[in-house]
Every structure is written in C-alpha cells, then in structure tokens.
Amino acid sequence: MDASSDIRTVMSSPLVGVAPGAPAAHAAWLLWEREIGAVPVIGDQGLLGLITDGDLLRLGDFDGHIAVDVMSAPVMVVRADTPVDEAARIMGRHGVGHLPVVDDDGNPIGMISRSDVLAVRLPADPEVRRQVIDRVIDVGGEVLGVHVENGGVRLCVRVGGRDEAAVVERLVREIDGVVALDASFSYLDELSGEPVRG
User: Fold this and answer.
1) For every one of its 198 residues, what pLDDT tens digit does the chain have, with 9 covering 90 and above?
2) Which of these CATH numbers, 1.20.120.1810, 3.40.640.10, 3.30.1340.30, 3.30.420.40, describes 125-197?
3) Where are the domains positioned within the chain?
C-alpha cells in the first residue's frame, strides 16, 4: 500500500461516535477504551463536531458537561476517495491530528489519524528486513538471524569487532520503519582472540 492509495484502505471503520447530549465522561471513556484520539459528535443533521483527547484535557472536570459543549467545530472532513498523501497534507497544513471521513452524501463513515497516515508511509516489514540484511552485509557482517514485526527488529549478527557492531546498530536504527531494535552480536575479542557475545 502506498501514500497514493485512497483513505478507505486505512481509515478506522465502523465509526465510533457520540450524540450531542452524551456526557463528556462517556466521550472520554470511548477514547480510553478504544485507544483512539478523537470521537465525532453526530446528530440528526450529521457530523456536528469532534472531541479530541486535548479537548477533554483542557476541560478538566467532566461533571455537567455534554459532548456539544466540549467538541471542536466546525470540523474539516475528507471524502473516502481522497488519497492518503492528500489527507496528510490537509492535516499538516491545518494542524489537525484526525479527519472524519465522509461518503458522497456527507455522512460520516470513518476516521483517519496521523498514525494511520504514518503507517502507510513506513515501509512494510519485508522491506525493512531486506534493508537490515543489506546494511549488515555492507559493513562485512554476517546475519545469523533477523526477524521484523511491526517495525520491531530482532537481529543476531557476527561481525569483526566491537566497532563494527556499533556501526551495524547505528545503521539499522537509521532505517525508515525501524521502531525498535534488539540486537545481539558475536565477534572475536581484539586482544585475547576469544569469542565475545554482546
């Protein structure tokens, strides 16, 4: 999947929303329970606003507050056929972290967030794996094992020495898409000639 794909491929759906009269505490619970950063306020007229975690943090005490009092409005929206890279430009230009997705009739059908956009822009795990192996080979190392899952890399490498191990670690951490690295190295100690694992 690439950034020219439409947002239908990455949006969160079905949409989780609240009614205008819903307690603010209910919106806060939804954000926490669903691990999302925004919830739309939807009434008879359609999308009325958006409640973000920031809106709720600024509110402080939820007692006596309802969704329509807390929401940010008006809300920028994108259509389902909008390319992901265009949604990213809209978010960046307007400083928003979430965009409700609407159908051709303007009805809310999903939500796209910054993390959805970033996930599309990061290389897939097989591509990250290939780049990790290439970087190890480039410095003269031997890959004994490599596993990549959701950007997390577990790596076992034989290198010429401690300096090469540091170079491999730095190069792997610089790969786009690597979010965590658990690396173990083996090499011969330069003074004693004994095998070292680190």
Assistant:
1) 455 577 888 888 888 899 999 999 999 999 999 988 899 999 998 899 999 988 888 887 888 899 999 999 999 999 989 988 888 888 888 888 899 999 888 889 999 988 888 777 667 788 889 999 999 999 888 999 999 887 789 999 998 888 888 999 999 988 877 878 999 998 877 777 677 776
2) 3.30.1340.30
3) 7-121, 125-197
User: Is the bond leading into 14 cis (omega within 30 degrees of zero)?
Assistant: yes
| DSSP code of residue 51 | E
Torsion sign across C-alpha atoms 62, 63, 68, 73: negative
Give long-range contacts, CB 8 A cutoff, 24+ apart: 129-133: 129/153, 131/175, 131/177, 132/172, 132/175, 132/178
